[in-house]
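re: that chain from earlier
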Amino acid sequence: MRKIRKTALLSAFIALAGGANAEPHVEMSIPLDWAVTAAMAAEKKCTDIGFAVTVTVVDQRAQPRVQLMKEGAFPHTIDTSSRKAITAASRREATAVIEAENEHEPTLGAVFNEIGLITLSGGIPILYDGAVIGGIGIAGSPGEDATGKEYDDICAEAGIAAIAHLLNVGKSEQ
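^ sequence. v structure.
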């Protein structure tokens, strides 16, 4: 009986592992110099509009690549910008979209909070040729401009704009 169990377990393991025909799974990640460029551009945009912020850039697996904290930024912006970047990268959607889509579900924020995500605007996924390679999150610029756009989103977009020429945007559609 013990031998049968071991054989069954070994067979199941081989089946789950995919056997010898499996190929490695390769994911692209935002290079460090791109992450630095995006973070610095986002921080500059926020500084230009008068805010001291923290900017975080994570890779496609939501692991930190860069975090910049401007002098005068509030301490809580470290965690908040990180959670925005992580949410954008892992959910593959801007946090402002997640926030707007889920206004009807007040408990979602608590669920997101429990797993380390956040439903506040200011996080945007970074796409390379249509695939998520990272996320950028901004915290510390409260409010919105005259058009109703959140300042955190404006700064995050400035960060992505600084590396847009590297992201192969639209090249796969040509």
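Helices lie at 2-17, 32-49, 76-91, 95-101, 108-114, 151-163.
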